[in-house]
Amino acid sequence: MTLTMKASTFALIALRLWNYIQQVITEAKYLEQLGFQIPELGRNVALQEDNGLLSETLASLNAPETELLGDHVRELQRVLKPGAKRLNWSSSGIGDYIAQCDLAITKMESLVDQIHKNAHDMELRLKLVEQTDLFRAPPPGPGGCYPKQSYEYFDCIGTNRNSVIGILARKYHAIGPLLTKVEGLVVNTNTGRSPRLKPYYLYLEKRFFAALSTMVYKNLELYLARLRGDAPVFVVNAVLSAAEVVTSPPVKEIYKLLTQSVRKTVESVRRFVRWMYGTCIECAPQHVEGRDEPYVFSFQKDIQVHPRFLDVVSQLNMTITQFLGGLNKYLTRWRNKCSGDCRGNYFGEDRREEVELREAQAQDLDFVRIQLKPLTTKIQETAQAWVTSLGKLLNDSARDALFGLRNQLQGLMRRQALL
Fold first, then answer.
1. Rounded CA gap, 288 and 274, in Å?
2. Rounded distance between C-alpha atoms, residue 256 and residue 238, angstroms
């Protein structure tokens, strides 16, 4: 049987035994209140009511904590063992034995309390990591303007992500000193690499890896849900550039912004450097030949190969690709529409189409709102420029023809006068 099993079994047996003894103590107290004579042994047992807290204290330890305190639990067993075998309440050395037990129990309870405080602190840090929102929507602009333009939106997302990751990284870096304090309590050293704490280091590193993984997966799934939702996430402008209908930013830039947000989310875990094996000391960056930047031992590669990560990234790529295909089709319809309108064909030919063009303001396409006002304004300006240009050409042509006709008429009139 391992030390962990021995310690946990001892705690479980002690707790069950204490539950039974507590019933006896309660019955003895009530019987004494009712006026019954209680044997001396029963009164002595009732006086030890507070010592039963030890059983509850030991039972509150989880498996890694029980293994961590294995030596202390074994020492406590050694101190308590005489009372379970050769001593009774009438033994001559019972007073010294009780004093030793009180001292050992107090020491154990104090140690467990310190371990639990540190564990609670680390648990809060882990929960904070798991619940972090790396895609927090930016606040509305002046006058409640929402959603924001694409560059502004992703800039706000990136700024928030860097700020939050910075806070979490500082909290992660502080776990090492916390574990050094635990080491001082348990083995009276402060090296950060105690062999006695090796299983505890591994346990906490796995817990933090799980928390980071949850943070990345949940945030990418939140990002996916937002892109698949009905509400527009950000705004792009439709514009007329060199007689071509395009978006600002261009479609390739929109794709870059969308995918870059995914990549930055995964790369953010590089701020959480892994510990050297069997320690709580962070690995130093390693300079690798042929690489410009030093290699950092982080959780990034482990997260990237997880099936849950691969699945959500695949869905994101598919959603983004489908959106860009729909966006190109939508722009193509505008290009076809503008091929005639930009030359002013709608003036006088289709007044309904002219009205629709003037009234077009915006179009929601999946998760993007396309602002059409810059495009329609430019189309109207271009069409008006065509009308003005054509009018000038027609005016010049008609004027030349009229002047020519006048000259002919004047010539005819002069010849008629000579006759």
1. 18
2. 18
Q: How far apart are CA 398 and CA 321, in angstroms?
A: 54
Model confidence pLDDT, tens digit, residues 138-195: 877 665 566 888 999 999 999 999 999 999 999 999 999 999 999 999 999 999 999 9
The model's pLDDT over 110-128, given as tens digits with 9 standing for 90+, comes to 898 999 999 999 999 999 9
Tokens standing for residue 104: 């050992």
Whether 102 and 202 share a structural domain = no
Query: Is 370:247 a contact under the CB 8 Å cutoff?
Result: yes
Q: Are residues 83 and 204 in the same domain?
A: no
How many Å apart are CA 229 and CA 225, to the nearest integer? 6
Share of the chain above pLDDT 70, in %: 82
CA torsion 325→331→335→341, rounded to 10°?
160
Distance CA 359, CA 361 (A): 6
Angle ∠(213,216,220) on CA atoms, nearest 5 = 140
Amino acid 92: pLDDT: 75
**Residue reference for tokens 């010049």:** 396
User: Do 93 and 45 share a domain, yes or no?
Assistant: yes
Phi first, then psi, for residue 348 (nearest 5°) are 90, -20
